[in-house]
Sequence to fold (352 residues):
Amino acid sequence: MIATLGKETSAEQIYDQLKAMLADVVPDFELRMKSEIAAKINQVKAEKNAVILGHNYMEPALFYSIPDFVGDSLDLARRAAQTDKDIIVFCGVKFMAETAKLLNPTKTVLIPSEKAGCSLAASITGEDVRELRRRFPGVPVVTYVNTYADVKAESDICCTSSNAVAVVKSLNTDRVIFLPDEYLAKNVARETGLKIIFPTTDPRQAVEGELDYQMIGWPGRCEVHDKFSVEDIVNVRKQFPDVVILAHPECSPEVVAASDYSGSTNAMIRYVEQTKAPRYLLLTECSMGENVAAANPDKEMLRLCSVRCPHMNQITLEDTLESLEKSQYLIEIPEEIRVRAARAVERMIAIG
Fold:
């Protein structure tokens, strides 16, 4: 969580704050331009009684100027559920804005760009989940929050990367369907000691009951975290043998095993804040590394910054201002889907 800059904050004041944090990251002319836009956004936000939620993957100038709250998916879902504002502007991707709408059906929820999708969320549909339920009757479905509302509606409970293990354990069942992230599922299976199968990709695992298993997975992947490799880690350690490497659980199990720590975006931020190491490397979305570096100027952060999420990158200050001014793009979910999807998200939030 961060304190938002009030409507009385001038563009010059915002510029001074951003320059103090981002002078080594963002060119000065860009900081001045973005400060002007941020000042206008904060003014309109106050006039319209809106709240802005910003995911950890937002680009630095936006991340440190306009959100009332920043965090990971779970943290922002909680903030969305608690807000008393009339309008929620979600600076993140579509499934995150949908989650805010699930929890606030009477409020206006906006996303600044209609192009802010997600490769992982697009990897599965509600019909896919129904087919798995037919093949594995009675097995509870845990769905990663990085999914669209129709998928959440077919699920028993949602999870995030920060509480996935706790959610799986909370079900206290012999078997669980875990969707849709292949790598997160494998990492959870390893941490919980469960044997996982992928019956949609391996014909030998196609019939329920053929094998001894406790978890059923799905072959979805995040296009950002899928790009990190063990070779990347080996090469970095050759040059910086004392580096501490942090990997998001959406990275492959091999990358997670070769790293020093794995956790959600919020968990990685806390790790850097609470530890002392010669230098750090974050294997996650590029802008988050810049945001963490700006917040920790006394700590050396290495850059492996070739991986930018093309969907998160759609959210800009310019589009956020236009979204507020024109009330676009509106998130709408059919009520029958919303009610069932909200139930799965609320169960996730209750576990924490």
Notes: The first strand starts at residue 50 and ends at 55. The domain at 225-295 is CATH 3.40.50.10800 (Rossmann fold). The longest helix spans residues 28-47.
